[in-house]
Amino acid sequence: MKKKISFIGAGNIGGTMASIASGYNYADIVLYDINGDFAKGKALDISQMNVVNGHDTSIIGTGDISEINDSDVIIITAGFPRKPQMTRDDLLTANAKIIGLVATNVAKYAPQAFCIIVTNPLDLMVFEFQKRSGLPKHKVVGMAGTLDGARFKCFLAEEFNVSVKDIEATVLGGHGDSMVPVLSSVAVKGMRLGQMLKMNLTTQKRIDEIVNRVRHGGGEIVSLMQRGSAFYAPAACALEIAQSFLLNQNRVLTVSAFLDGEYGDIDGMAFGVPAVIGDNGVKRIIELNLDGHETQMLRQSVEHLESLIFKLS
Ligand code: APR
User: Fold this and answer.
1) Active site residues
2) Nearest residue to 281 (alpha-carbon basis) of 260, 250, 254, 237
3) Which of 100, 179, 185, 300 has its Cβ near the most Cβ atoms within 10 Å?
């Protein structure tokens, strides 16, 4: 039997994901939006694209949330994107209301689903969604670290003039200015950053510039586009997580996941950590061996999230 993926929010990211996932052939798709006709229009457009591409995926556009019933995966992008000069945290109050509403509906119609949150401010929306839906913590994650990691790898590949496939790099922590690009994780096919610095393949100044660019990678795109925020890479990253669940791939992906004593005894918070994603959702959190500076930055990132949580209730 085919799987079922529902996208809540049919905007830039939701629509892009629906068009990519319609090529998988193993899952039927529901594209829901508060503006039902907008979702219906996009679904029609995608189903006509599928004719040309030879895909027989069923895709329904709808303004009726009950259509998400019995979904295997739900990916949530409902909410407002950033405008220029805004931080993700500026979206907190407006998007928390939307996520609260969506959470109630997911609990009602698809409580068994694996849920991937994309709406910003990401980690706080993951926290809010889980609290309001009551879904098990291992079935709720946020998409951010895979995106920040992709940006990090993209800039490092440019710097070293090698294929993106041969770069290793991880970004931990909250999906915001406090995120932690982990320099001790950077490698080109096993060659560590320290060795590359010694060989003058790059400089500390260049690496600092890359770290700064990663931290502000979303903002760079918002200021260039002026209308809306990034959507191609966020769509691809959220689907990577969904596929690992649906196909039980056990990929190690950096997601905003609930911690249970890992990383210096952090409990009950969700933020970016590498995790094994398979058919039960988050199967295991991977604890990286961080150096002292990275540990301190991670703590600051978590403290920043904690300082905003009170605004949610
Ligand atoms: N239920 C369902 N859909 C909703 C609701 C709701 N309560 N409220 C808003 N929406 C829909 C809007 O109608 C819109 O179609 O969410 C969609 C959001 O789409 P875009 O504005 O195009 O935003 P997008 O770029 O897709 O980003 C969505 O993801 O990365 C984050 O910061 C980004 O928070 C933003 C979210």
Assistant:
1) 175
2) 250
3) 179
